Amino acid sequence: MYPVKSRAKKKLWGGRFDGKTSSVMERIGESISFDKRLYKQDIRAGLAHAKMLSRIGVLSAEEFRQIESGLAAITKEIEEGNFRFIPELEDIHMHIEYRLTELKGDVGKKLHTARSRNDQVAQDVRLFIMDEIKSISPLLITLLEIIVSKAKNSVEIIMPGFTHLQVAQPLRASHYLLSYFWAFFRDFERIRIAYDSCDSMVLGSGALAGVNYKTDRLFMQKELGLSSSSENSIDAVSNRDYILEFLFAASQFMIHASRLCEEIIIFSSVEFGFISLPDSLTTGSSIMPQKKNPDIAELIRSKSSRVIANLNHVMILLKGLPMAYNRDLQEDKIPLFDTTDQLRISIEGISEMISGLEFQTKNLENSLKKGYATATDLADYLVSVKKIPFREAHELVGRLVSVCVTKEKNLFDIGESDRKKISEHFSGDGYFSAISLENSADKKDVFGGTAKKRQIEQISLAERKIKDLKKIKF
Ligand code: ARG
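That is the input. Now the predicted structure with arginine docked in place:
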């Protein structure tokens, strides 16, 4: 570790100041405790800026080489844990510039020519989100693959579908699982769009008005591999829409994840017993020996609140800010960083839960029967085979259900004589074929429906979608 004797005695911006900064100003003002996470992006953008400065003659070729090797040395120091972070130096931008000057002398002081921390931080955060999305999207693709492969193995399983959390109609378990495929697929799309909104070069905007040098912005855009450059320097340093877009996409994912978690919690309870989670994803109780708790689902459900709050946090932070840069913007990174971390770990957690869960088919069947899940099918049978108007059929089946409730029977074990008392049409083999769980599913033979044939179709459609996602180049 290098010596830091006189380090940071004088602020990099301290020319006009005689008095010392107060301790509370330093403690409130520092962001290095969190924005050190931007070091890679800050160095990458700094290098593009330095290259451009040498191109327009502000730096000599030799000076550029010095800066380049200095920035490489700093990267190494940070990555090996040998870099000293000092709160008095405020933020990551100051740290890197200060250290560059320590390592390379006066040439380090030239790097900040034609740039401001305002355009610097805006660029760094854009690059940061893009890097995060690059590494998060393969995790999302893996999640989608896990859902499809679980769905493939669950086509034969019939489970109750719910409305109002009351048994509604039979569903193939694959259909239920794939409903989350499409939700998460849309989330992928939204995250990809958030990537595009970050993809802009804002350097050269300076503090807010542009810079007094012949800055070659297009050159930096190309150096950084970005698709466009910002059109208005005031907007460029104050715009944080791209953070909101990413935070919204992440929140939307977490809302879907939380709904799934809620179902996993309910479905794995003793009362439902629809699914079981592997031991590896559950925890016991320190007092109750019998417990197997779905903590992972509960924690992801709670992380969703946190991620939504992070979106809210940045929206509230932004809404009252006058143009252009305000120091409030420093704190946008706290919710941003937290969201990327929570999103990443939640995608992994959801993936493991889906791949590890097992359907308890006996309980699914009991619930389907207990919940009269094929009552609608029976009414439809009266309509199509017995030519009874639907309203009347609905009434007859409703009466049958009512008798079942009184006698504590289901549509399968209620006696034929009881059925006949309500209607002659409830006798014969047609009755059992009408209430069959499998038949019920397979009659939903519409595109997007729960029939087996449609499941096979949807699975291959989902597989094609995944293939397309894999072709996306970030
Ligand atoms: N640490 C600051 C931030 O994150 C960098 C920009 C500081 N600009 C300023 N004018 N003080 O927003």
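The longest strand covers residues 166-172.
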